[in-house]
Amino acid sequence: MEARPEEAPEPREPEPRAASPEHPHHRGSFWKELPVLIVIAFAIALLIKTFLLQAFFIPSASMEPTLKIGDRVLVEKVGYRFGGAGRGDVVVFEKDVGAIINPEAADDDDPFYVDIANAFRELFGFPTGSKQDFIKRVIAIGGDTVQGRDGHVLVNGEAIAEPYLPEGTETSDFGPVEIPDGMIFVMGDNRANSDDSRSFGPVDEGKVVGRAFVLIWPPADVGTL
Which of 43, 94, 99, 145 could form a disulfide with 106 if both were Cys (CB 3.0 to 4.6 A apart)? Predict the structure, then answer.
């Protein structure tokens, strides 16, 4: 008798398996951990803003044409922890405008909870009471003598090159002003429309937040300063 090969059984389709329901414990864990993750994210953002980098919005025309209203710049803070400001740097510094209205208030210490609230407001670019951030260019540093004469700016008796100004820009006469050690003399690039050291005097280096080093907005103008 001739042997016949054994026929292979027809394959069976796998039976569908019921999807296991999501464990309610996993959903609950996520929502319990979410507030902690948010707090950690804010803490990291505050650390970066305090010690490394911070973005600033340009609110006025005092730095035109270098920076225009609505531009955003990135400010690095590390360099100013290891050295002072340099001539030509574009810096952000803190100015206590409240002291102009009420000089006695300038020396008052805010409660700790106000400091915490202000830290969060600064993180999102909101103003914080009497203190205001200015952005200007460093023209002279401690030990220099600065003067405006015949449309030019002179530092230690020599006219300085200012390639960041539009051709034909003239600076009104002022000074001479001797800059004390630990202070800087700042001016806006828009010489005809800038509230700067010509009006409020030299700035304490301790008030400098950091150096603006890159323009990050608008995208078409992104570049270093």
Answer: 99
